[in-house]
Design a protein that fits this description.
This protein is of the alpha/beta class. The chain has 2 domains: 4-307, Rossmann fold, CATH 3.40.50.620; 359-503, Isoleucyl-tRNA Synthetase, Domain 1, CATH 1.10.730. The protein contains 18 helices and 16 strands. It has helices at residues 19-37, 53-62, 66-83, 101-112, 175-183, 192-202, 235-239, 241-244, 247-255, 259-269, 282-295, 328-335, 337-346, 358-388, 403-417, 421-442, 449-470, 475-485, and strands at 4-8, 42-48, 90-93, 124-134, 139-141, 160-169, 188-190, 209-210, 212-214, 230-232, 274-278, 303-307, 310-311, 354-355, 396-399, 497-500. The strands form 5 sheets. The protein has a 6-stranded parallel beta sheet with strand order 3-2-1-11-12-7, sandwiched between helices. A 4-stranded antiparallel beta sheet has the order 5-4-6-8, with helices on one face. A hairpin with a 4-residue loop joins strand 4 and strand 5. The longest helix is centred in the last third of the chain and has 31 residues, at 358-388. The chain is elongated and about 85 Å long. 40% of the residues are buried.
Length: 516
């Protein structure tokens, strides 16, 4: 079975993480854990984007060595991932000269040597360019995109006039092919309105993309392999991270005596199930990256999930200047990582913005996690232990589950296959509500003997299924329940239930109700 490669975008390391970074890595983690729950082998990759002019300027302004600053910022992001129980299998840094640089340079040469048989033009070429450049978006912009102040009409980012000799990627050559791949679903972009947006953006054709800077302008980057006067700029470097630490390449590193052989095998066999990215960088992943892969004769990703932003409660974009940015560590300290994870992935539809609400996250904690889930687990296990200690009971529970529960699990898995975490949780919420109502209706505490045993065993099955379905969302709490119930690590949703009923113990309190 081949591993499913699932990736986040790699955040830019010119500062510390904010809540938007947390959203992306949590969303990706829930999906990755969901696939593992199906029994799929997953390789979940995240990392750090560490090159470019903004990185160098930030370090120079602070009077710091650039690598010292980057090491510190990377630690902040990795600490956030640890605090959020992120289960990534790999972490790639674009300053990694052993893993990343050779792959980037090999891809550059592969694209450089791709020559159009009709025009004899290379896919990477050098030219002198003069125009407006946006540092925030890391790209040249057209006059049509600018307002009267030479700022971007959309977003208001400032631009500057620049003239320089750059290498460019001939993205225009692939306009029609990219459009075809998006329209026929070979690359599926979710939500659908983002796919339509990308297709519309192609219009009459895409513009070529600046791929380098002269060392006079920028020294901080990966050297262009065929020109010592240039360093690569942004997109060829950053986007290639999805290739440079993939599960297939790790196998090739071990097998291949020569690095070049391993890289060539990587290019032939790379396979990506899903990229999870923010809407602000959709054009680069859905258009530029697809063009790069076509130029390099490399497989295309199957799916690209474009998520929205986290805004403040009034729907305003968070920014340092406004002072409404939320620190993920402060959020975790106040609400707990499981509550943060569930709130961030259950509140809005695919691709929609989340307007942060203290009221809603507190309701998730108190009403859903403490009252519904925590209360159900506590009542069922407490009733079973009290019954087991008084009367003879079966030693083990081995069954394929209850029919009604399988219907819920099927709906849950259908939602997972479309990467819709809101729908996944909606199924769990419905099951939780029904379970608590039915527990009160069946009143097992009023029954005796074998009848009571059978009813409680059914309820242990409910807890088993609900805990599994919740595990991608709230891994800390569900791992405690699984340990208390003796559920083996790595058990999938389709595995028969197998529990030693005599060893079930009561888990520690999962969620204390703490918000009034």
């Amino acid at each position: 079975m081949s591993k499913k490669l699932i990736t986040t975008a790699i955040p830019y390391m010119n500062g510390v993480p904010h809540i938007g970074h947390a959203l992306e890595v949590i969303l990706t983690d829930v999906i990755a854990r969901g696939y593992r729950l199906l029994g799929e082998e997953v390789f979940f990759l995240t990392g750090a984007d560490e090159h470019g002019s903004k990185i160098l300027k930030t370090a120079e302004t602070a009077g710091r060595d650039v690598m010292d600053m980057l090491d510190e910022n990377v630690r902040h992001f990795q600490d956030m991932n640890t605090a959020l129980s992120i289960s990534n299998d790999g972490y790639i840094r674009t300053t990694d000269k052993e893993k990343h640089w050779p792959v980037v340079q090999a891809l550059w040469m592969r694209m450089y040597n791709n020559i159009d048989p009709e025009t004899w033009e290379r896919d990477i070429y050098k030219k002198t360019y003069a125009g407006y450049y946006c540092d925030r978006e890391e790209r040249f912009v057209t006059e049509e995109e600018l307002d009267e102040n030479k700022c971007l009409k959309e977003g208001g980012a400032p631009t500057r006039w620049t003239e320089d000799e750059n290498y460019f990627f001939r993205l225009s050559r692939y306009s029609d092919t990219i459009k075809e791949k998006l329209m026929n679903g070979e690359v599926k972009i979710t939500p659908e309105f983002r796919q339509n947006e990308m297709i519309a953006m192609i219009g009459d054709g895409l513009e070529d993309v600046s791929f380098s800077r002269t060392k006079k302008q920028l020294t901080w980057g990966i050297p262009v392999p065929n020109d010592s006067d240039h360093v690569m700029y942004v997109w060829c470097d950053a986007l290639t991270n999805y290739l440079s630490w993939s599960p297939f390449f790790e196998e090739q590193r071990a097998k291949s005596k020569e690095q070049n052989e391993g890289i060539e095998n990587l290019f032939k066999n790379w396979n990506c199930e899903l990229h999870v990215i923010g809407k602000d960088i959709a054009r680069f992943h859905c258009l530029t990256w697809i063009g790069m892969l076509l130029s390099g004769w490399i497989n295309l990703p199957k799916n690209i999930l474009v998520h929205g932003f986290v805004n403040d409660k009034d729907g305003a974009k968070m920014s340092k200047s406004v002072g409404n940015v939320i620190d993920p560590h402060a959020m975790i300290a106040e609400y707990g990582s499981d509550t943060v994870r569930l709130y961030m992935t259950s509140e809005v539809g695919v691709g929609q913005d989340l307007n942060f609400s203290d009221e809603r996250i507190r309701s998730i904690h108190n009403d859903v996690l403490a009252n519904n889930y925590g209360n159900l687990v506590n009542r069922v296990i407490s009733l079973w232990i009290a019954h087991r200690d008084k009367e003879p009971t079966p030693a083990s529970l081995e069954r394929k589950g209850i029919g009604g529960l399988k219907i819920f699990s099927t709906r849950y898995l259908d939602a997972l296959k479309t990467n819709n975490t809101q729908w996944m949780f909606a199924v769990i919420q419905e099951l939780l509500n029904d379970a608590n109502i039915m527990l009160n209706t069946t009143e097992p505490w009023k029954k005796q003997g074998e009848e009571k045993s059978n009813i409680l065993i059914d309820w242990i099955s409910y807890v088993y299924y609900i805990t599994h379905m919740l595990s991608p969302f709230i891994p800390k709490a569900t791992s405690k329940v699984m340990k208390a119930m003796g559920i083996k690590e790595g058990t999938t949703l389709d595995d028969p239930i197998s529990i030693d009923l005599n060893t079930i113990t009561k888990p520690e309190i999962l969620f204390e109700k703490k918000f009034s």
